[in-house]
Amino acid sequence: MKHFNFNELVYLMDGLSVTVTYTLMYFKLIILWKNSRIFYEILEAMNQDWNEQIARKSEWAKDIMRETSVTSGKFVKVVILTTFVSVLFYSSSILFNSNNQLADNVTSREKQLLMQMELPFDSSHSPIYEIVIAVQFAHQIAAATVVGVLTSLLLAIILHLGGQIDIIRKRLSTAVSTSDSDQSFFTVINSLIGKHQQIITMAENLENLFTLIALLEFVINTLTICFLGLVIITSISSMENTLIIFKFFGFICVIITEAFIFCFAGEYLTNKSKLIGEAAYKSLWYELKPKESSVLILVILRSQRQLTITIGKIMELSLERFTTILKASVSYISVLYAFY
């Protein structure tokens, strides 16, 4: 608030973007802490799914679980690596050109910190300046790790649910085949219905855990994209400060990627939940007795209750919402640039 000054637009937008981004991170941690019981229930359900598949000794189910785990691990590595790269991009003004100035009237060394802040001591002299830079860089790496892990957490849980749905679909397709001849149809279908209910419960817990986080993501990420987009556009139009574009490019890419992952997770879960009913319909129901085939109707009806993640219980997360974020951000940037 002390430096809320439109005369230094780059510093103002830089400070606002960092402030709202850190605010979002702390809100996420608080929400996760307040809903720790739900979080532990989700982790316990995932652990139970693994133990169940190990006990069944079904190789194809284990293959699905392992494939899902490997895919999840790859996505987690990419997300966390992207956040690290964004820190390097953001720190480029100091790491690659310590003499670069973000604004024409900036001459003091204090204003070349990685994050602009008021310190109760003079940080413009060595070795204090180098120590402050090192601490700020370590802090940014730690914050990037937290953001990457929280985003990866949602993605890992969603992919796990998708793997469990694939297992149900596979078992439905073979429910009346000779491979399950040693068990009665009702024994198999009852276990599938129970498993389906577990997936629904886990998806509801996931919704309760991430719905408020998704709302904050939409609001704060839109604001951040506006702030950074305005800085980049003004820098391009002046054909100067190319290092500013390099600095904020990684930052804005991570924000857009984070919003895309949330929207992709909601879209993925919704589409996967529909496939259970399709698998029941495509099974060999016409070879069953009327009493047995009528049970599949209940499975189809239950699968019509789509699983999804909402934005503050207001609207569903989907790829369409992601395009809405981008369109709204570009519109706001145009308005701000017109006033600028």
Plain-language structure description:
The protein has 340 residues and is mainly α. It has one domain (9-339). Helix content is 76%, strand content 1%. The chain is built from 9 helices and 2 strands. The chain has helices at 9-34, 36-56, 59-90, 92-95, 128-173, 185-238, 242-282, 290-303, 319-339; strands spanning 310-311, 315-316. A two-stranded antiparallel ribbon has the order 1-2. Strand 1 and strand 2 form a beta hairpin. Helix 7 runs antiparallel to helix 9. Residues 99-110 and 178-182 have low confidence and may be disordered.
Q: Quick one: overall form?
A: elongated
Q: Helix and strand succession? A: HHHHHHHHEEH
Strand order of the largest sheet: 1-2
Strand content: under 5%
What structural category do the secondary elements indicate?
Answer: mainly alpha
Q: Terminal Cα separation, in Å?
A: 20 Å
Please give the count of helices. Answer: 9
Percentage of residues assigned to helices: over 70%
**Using only CA atoms, what is the Rg?**
25 Å
The biggest sheet amounts to:
2 strands, antiparallel
Rounded average pLDDT? 80
Number of strands: 2
Number of domains: 1
The unreliable regions are 99-110, 178-182
